[in-house]
């Protein structure tokens, strides 16, 4: 294999084409060919991007000039396509979720290890600079312990007609598995491993479609995480809000690919200085300075020195779509490094595909069983 890694895409739908565009400018990787079960779509995509079209996924997998195959097909196809790709000697970047069940996911990871190939899952959240900034704040303990983190995902369903595979649990796995895995993976990075407490699902009135799900997870150190996903909005009202509550402040993120982070903190001057240094580029608004006689406070039965109340804003530095493409490239760059050097430790590897799926499968089962397993 030359140092350049040659890429083939299977699945030329909306997301596959978005990724392809993002990857075409990536150094050290050459996009070679595309395939789709819809051969006309593969030809259209090839013509648009200047790549070659293969008549079928098998034809693409048989090519000797492709090292890494990206599976951007619906979830129910991931296990069989990844197995075929690994057996053909390819590295695989699989779209999330890795598979629909843990047995398939474990078998795929086992096969990848046996073939000495990577099997990455496109769980991009850990590559978002603001998600990294949140991780740094949590680990620093400047805001004290994290207590609660919630994601409210009020998503558009305008691009999802009733017959779309997304609504078919046999094909998508359901909302926790198809979409929730991103956030289970991210919260585990932030807070450590967790245990599902409960999960619920709600059907759309007079329909078999489940369009709302809710799960709660307890993490170490007494952190409670809650995840709400509802797919019921106009495209223009698609909205996500994340809120993290700490002992000494809150963090709010907006959009599912967060582009802005806001903090509201009550700290001593020394801790506030440390926090500002931890977040380069942060904009600060001093809301209140407490006089000495008012700076001693208590919470959780502990004394707290609170000299300043401030608002802080940190921008990701990119508009949403630009940031999304960058996160895709950063995840891919991480995988390419591991292909070139097996000793390279990736931010997201095989394990993330399995553990994120484990939360999602438990949540799906609990929701189906009426709440708690
Ligand atoms: N990582 C992310 O941020 C992210 C974002 C969106 C979607 N996704 C994932 O990407 C995948 C694709 O989503 P999408 O929105 O592009 O779906 P889509 O329906 O728009 O496209 C899927 C494509 O796969 C093709 N296809 C289906 N079965 C196939 C098979 N067996 N062999 C070859 N081609 C096949 C279809 O013809 C279609 O062109 C899903 O797993 C989804 O969860 C990931």
Task: Compile the SSE list and pairings.
Elements: E1 5-10, H1 14-23, E2 29-35, H2 39-49, E3 52-53, H3 57-61, E4 68-71, H4 78-87, E5 91-94, H5 102-115, E6 119-121, H6 129-140, E7 146-156, H7 169-172, H8 175-191, E8 194-203, E9 210-219, E10 223-233, E11 239-246, E12 249-254, E13 260-267, H9 269-278, E14 283-289, E15 296-299, E16 302-305, E17 308-315, H10 320-340, H11 350-368
Parallel strand pairs: 1-2, 1-4, 2-3, 4-5, 5-6, 7-10
Antiparallel strand pairs: 7-11, 8-9, 9-10, 11-12, 12-13, 13-17, 14-17, 15-16
Helix pairs in contact: 1-10, 4-5, 5-11, 6-8, 8-11
The protein binds nicotinamide-adenine-dinucleotide.
Nicotinamide-adenine-dinucleotide binds at residues 10-16, 36-38, 41, 57, 72-75, 77, 95-96, 122, 124, 178.
Quick structural gist:
Helices cover 36% and strands 30% of the residues. It has eleven helices and 17 strands. Bound molecules: nicotinamide-adenine-dinucleotide.
Structural class: alpha/beta
Instruction: Report strand %.
Output: 25-35%
Looking at CATH, which topology of the largest domain would you report?
Dihydrodipicolinate Reductase, domain 2
Poorly predicted parts: none
Principal-axis shape: globular
């Amino acid at each position: 294999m030359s140092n350049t890694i040659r890429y083939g895409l299977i699945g030329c739908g909306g997301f596959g084409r978005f990724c392809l565009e993002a990857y075409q400018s990536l150094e050290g990787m050459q996009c070679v060919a595309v395939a789709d079960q819809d051969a006309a779509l593969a030809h259209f995509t090839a013509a648009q991007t200047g790549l070659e079209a293969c008549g079928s996924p098998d034809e693409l997998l048989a090519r000797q000039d492709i090292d890494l195959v990206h599976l951007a097909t619906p979830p129910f196809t991931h296990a069989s396509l990844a197995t075929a790709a690994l057996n053909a000697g390819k590295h695989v970047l699989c779209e999330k979720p890795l598979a629909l069940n843990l047995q398939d996911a474990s078998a795929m990871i086992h096969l990848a290890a046996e073939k000495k190939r990577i099997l990455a899952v496109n769980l991009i959240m850990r590559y978002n600079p603001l998600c990294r900034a949140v991780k740094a704040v949590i680990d620093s303990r400047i805001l004290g312990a994290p207590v609660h983190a919630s994601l409210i995902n009020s998503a558009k369903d305008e691009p999802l007609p009733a017959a779309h595979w997304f609504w078919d649990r046999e094909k998508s796995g359901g909302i926790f598995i198809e979409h929730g895995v991103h956030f289970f993976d991210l919260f585990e990075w932030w807070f450590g491993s967790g245990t599902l407490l409960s999960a619920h699902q709600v059907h759309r009135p007079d329909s078999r479609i489940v369009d709302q799900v809710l799960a709660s997870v307890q993490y170490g150190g007494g952190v409670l995480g809650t995840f709400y996903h509802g797919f019921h909005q106009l495209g223009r009202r698609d909205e996500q809000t994340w809120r993290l509550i700490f002992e000494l402040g809150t963090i709010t993120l907006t959009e599912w690919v967060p582009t802005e982070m806001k903090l509201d903190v009550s700290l001593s001057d020394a801790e506030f200085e440390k926090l500002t240094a931890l977040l380069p580029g942060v904009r600060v608004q001093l809301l209140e300075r407490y006089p000495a006689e008012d700076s001693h406070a208590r919470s959780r039965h502990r004394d707290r020195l609170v000299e300043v109340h401030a608002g802080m804003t940190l921008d990701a530095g990119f508009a949403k779509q630009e940031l999304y493409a960058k996160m895709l490239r950063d995840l891919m760059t991480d995988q390419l490094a591991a292909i070139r050097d097996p000793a390279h430790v990736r931010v997201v590897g095989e394990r993330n595909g399995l553990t994120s799926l484990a939360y999602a499968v438990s949540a799906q089962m609990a929701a189906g069983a009426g709440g708690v397993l």
